[in-house]
Write a structure and sequence with these properties.
Layout lengths: L2 H24 L5 E9 L6 E6 H15 L3 H8 L17 H9 L8 H24 L13 E7 L4 H9 L5 H9 L3
Parallel strand pairs: 1-3
Antiparallel strand pairs: 1-2
Length: 186
Protein backbone atom coordinates (compact mmCIF):
# COMPACT_ATOMS: atom_id res chain seq x y z
CA UNK A 1 0.00 0.00 0.00
CA UNK A 2 1.30 3.48 -0.86
CA UNK A 3 2.01 5.89 2.02
CA UNK A 4 -0.94 8.20 1.20
CA UNK A 5 -3.29 5.20 1.08
CA UNK A 6 -1.90 4.01 4.41
CA UNK A 7 -2.47 7.46 5.91
CA UNK A 8 -6.05 7.62 4.61
CA UNK A 9 -6.88 4.09 5.76
CA UNK A 10 -5.51 4.75 9.22
CA UNK A 11 -7.19 8.18 9.36
CA UNK A 12 -10.60 6.69 8.58
CA UNK A 13 -10.26 4.23 11.45
CA UNK A 14 -8.99 6.90 13.86
CA UNK A 15 -11.79 9.28 12.82
CA UNK A 16 -14.45 6.62 13.43
CA UNK A 17 -13.16 5.97 16.95
CA UNK A 18 -12.68 9.65 17.76
CA UNK A 19 -16.14 10.50 16.40
CA UNK A 20 -17.77 7.98 18.76
CA UNK A 21 -15.77 9.31 21.71
CA UNK A 22 -16.34 13.01 21.02
CA UNK A 23 -20.03 12.59 20.13
CA UNK A 24 -20.68 10.63 23.32
CA UNK A 25 -18.79 13.24 25.34
CA UNK A 26 -20.66 16.12 23.72
CA UNK A 27 -23.99 14.64 24.81
CA UNK A 28 -23.36 16.34 28.18
CA UNK A 29 -24.18 19.69 26.53
CA UNK A 30 -21.12 21.48 27.89
CA UNK A 31 -19.37 24.23 25.89
CA UNK A 32 -15.97 23.00 24.70
CA UNK A 33 -12.96 25.19 23.92
CA UNK A 34 -10.28 22.47 23.54
CA UNK A 35 -10.50 19.12 21.74
CA UNK A 36 -7.38 17.11 21.10
CA UNK A 37 -6.22 13.81 19.74
CA UNK A 38 -2.88 13.15 21.39
CA UNK A 39 -0.09 10.62 21.23
CA UNK A 40 3.27 10.08 22.83
CA UNK A 41 6.66 10.82 21.37
CA UNK A 42 6.86 7.09 20.68
CA UNK A 43 3.84 7.26 18.36
CA UNK A 44 1.47 5.11 20.40
CA UNK A 45 -2.18 4.85 19.38
CA UNK A 46 -3.96 8.13 20.12
CA UNK A 47 -6.55 9.06 22.72
CA UNK A 48 -8.81 12.06 22.99
CA UNK A 49 -8.96 14.73 25.62
CA UNK A 50 -11.10 17.84 25.88
CA UNK A 51 -11.90 20.76 28.12
CA UNK A 52 -15.20 22.56 28.47
CA UNK A 53 -15.66 25.82 30.31
CA UNK A 54 -17.90 24.00 32.78
CA UNK A 55 -15.33 21.26 33.48
CA UNK A 56 -12.55 23.85 33.86
CA UNK A 57 -14.60 25.73 36.46
CA UNK A 58 -15.36 22.61 38.47
CA UNK A 59 -11.87 21.11 38.27
CA UNK A 60 -10.03 24.34 39.08
CA UNK A 61 -12.34 24.93 42.08
CA UNK A 62 -11.75 21.36 43.29
CA UNK A 63 -7.97 21.64 42.96
CA UNK A 64 -7.92 25.11 44.53
CA UNK A 65 -9.82 23.83 47.55
CA UNK A 66 -7.30 21.02 48.01
CA UNK A 67 -4.24 23.25 47.65
CA UNK A 68 -5.17 26.73 48.93
CA UNK A 69 -4.15 28.09 45.52
CA UNK A 70 -6.51 30.64 43.93
CA UNK A 71 -9.03 29.18 41.48
CA UNK A 72 -7.84 31.52 38.72
CA UNK A 73 -4.24 30.35 39.14
CA UNK A 74 -5.27 26.70 38.95
CA UNK A 75 -7.47 27.43 35.91
CA UNK A 76 -4.54 29.09 34.12
CA UNK A 77 -2.29 26.11 34.91
CA UNK A 78 -4.66 23.37 33.70
CA UNK A 79 -6.64 25.14 30.96
CA UNK A 80 -4.74 23.52 28.07
CA UNK A 81 -3.55 20.35 29.82
CA UNK A 82 -4.85 17.19 28.19
CA UNK A 83 -3.75 15.17 31.23
CA UNK A 84 -5.54 17.31 33.84
CA UNK A 85 -8.86 17.17 32.04
CA UNK A 86 -11.56 14.96 33.53
CA UNK A 87 -12.19 13.96 29.91
CA UNK A 88 -8.66 12.66 29.25
CA UNK A 89 -8.91 9.27 27.49
CA UNK A 90 -12.69 9.63 27.30
CA UNK A 91 -14.20 6.76 25.31
CA UNK A 92 -10.84 5.03 25.01
CA UNK A 93 -12.63 1.71 24.47
CA UNK A 94 -13.66 3.04 21.04
CA UNK A 95 -9.94 3.03 20.14
CA UNK A 96 -9.38 -0.71 20.62
CA UNK A 97 -9.32 -1.31 16.85
CA UNK A 98 -6.98 1.65 16.35
CA UNK A 99 -4.65 0.24 19.00
CA UNK A 100 -4.62 -3.10 17.20
CA UNK A 101 -3.92 -1.33 13.90
CA UNK A 102 -1.03 0.62 15.45
CA UNK A 103 0.36 -2.56 17.04
CA UNK A 104 0.25 -4.29 13.64
CA UNK A 105 2.36 -1.54 12.08
CA UNK A 106 6.17 -1.63 12.20
CA UNK A 107 7.36 -1.38 15.80
CA UNK A 108 8.62 2.16 16.04
CA UNK A 109 11.17 1.22 18.72
CA UNK A 110 12.83 -1.30 16.41
CA UNK A 111 13.31 1.11 13.48
CA UNK A 112 16.41 3.00 12.43
CA UNK A 113 16.09 6.79 12.74
CA UNK A 114 15.09 7.47 9.10
CA UNK A 115 12.48 4.71 9.07
CA UNK A 116 11.35 5.78 12.54
CA UNK A 117 10.73 9.32 11.26
CA UNK A 118 8.76 8.02 8.26
CA UNK A 119 6.56 5.81 10.44
CA UNK A 120 6.04 8.45 13.13
CA UNK A 121 5.13 11.10 10.56
CA UNK A 122 2.70 8.71 8.86
CA UNK A 123 0.92 8.15 12.18
CA UNK A 124 0.83 11.88 12.93
CA UNK A 125 -0.50 12.72 9.46
CA UNK A 126 -3.24 10.09 9.87
CA UNK A 127 -4.24 11.65 13.19
CA UNK A 128 -4.34 15.13 11.67
CA UNK A 129 -6.41 13.93 8.72
CA UNK A 130 -8.80 12.19 11.13
CA UNK A 131 -9.40 15.42 13.06
CA UNK A 132 -9.88 17.32 9.80
CA UNK A 133 -12.45 14.72 8.71
CA UNK A 134 -14.37 15.21 11.96
CA UNK A 135 -14.11 18.97 11.65
CA UNK A 136 -15.44 18.84 8.08
CA UNK A 137 -18.47 16.90 9.44
CA UNK A 138 -19.17 19.67 11.99
CA UNK A 139 -18.39 17.56 15.06
CA UNK A 140 -16.62 20.38 16.89
CA UNK A 141 -19.52 22.79 16.43
CA UNK A 142 -22.10 20.60 18.17
CA UNK A 143 -22.27 22.52 21.47
CA UNK A 144 -20.58 25.80 20.56
CA UNK A 145 -19.50 27.82 17.52
CA UNK A 146 -16.52 26.18 15.78
CA UNK A 147 -14.46 29.36 16.19
CA UNK A 148 -14.72 28.88 19.97
CA UNK A 149 -12.90 25.54 19.87
CA UNK A 150 -9.20 24.88 19.41
CA UNK A 151 -8.94 21.52 17.60
CA UNK A 152 -5.55 19.89 18.03
CA UNK A 153 -3.37 16.88 17.35
CA UNK A 154 -0.62 16.83 19.94
CA UNK A 155 2.54 14.95 20.77
CA UNK A 156 3.31 14.59 24.45
CA UNK A 157 5.64 15.81 25.74
CA UNK A 158 4.91 18.95 23.72
CA UNK A 159 6.75 19.52 20.46
CA UNK A 160 6.83 22.49 18.06
CA UNK A 161 5.01 20.39 15.46
CA UNK A 162 1.92 20.72 17.69
CA UNK A 163 1.75 24.41 16.74
CA UNK A 164 2.24 23.68 13.03
CA UNK A 165 -0.64 21.17 13.09
CA UNK A 166 -2.82 23.53 15.16
CA UNK A 167 -2.38 26.25 12.54
CA UNK A 168 -3.47 23.83 9.82
CA UNK A 169 -6.54 22.63 11.74
CA UNK A 170 -7.77 26.03 12.97
CA UNK A 171 -8.14 29.52 11.58
CA UNK A 172 -5.23 31.46 13.10
CA UNK A 173 -7.46 34.45 13.83
CA UNK A 174 -10.18 32.49 15.65
CA UNK A 175 -10.58 33.45 19.32
CA UNK A 176 -9.82 29.91 20.54
CA UNK A 177 -6.69 29.63 18.42
CA UNK A 178 -5.47 33.06 19.47
CA UNK A 179 -5.88 32.07 23.12
CA UNK A 180 -4.06 28.77 22.61
CA UNK A 181 -1.20 30.45 20.71
CA UNK A 182 -0.77 33.02 23.49
CA UNK A 183 -1.10 30.60 26.40
CA UNK A 184 0.07 27.15 25.32
CA UNK A 185 1.82 26.98 21.95
CA UNK A 186 5.29 25.48 21.79
Amino acid sequence: MKPMQEIETLAIEIAAAARKSFCTLFENGERYYYCTLYTTGEGHAPSISAWSWEALGLESARQAEESDTPVSTIADLIKWSYANSPYCCFGDDHFDGVKQRFNARPSITDLEIDDWNVEFNLRLKAMELAMKMLDDKGIFALNQPRESVCVLVEIMPPDKINTEIALRLNRAESPAMQAWLAEAAE
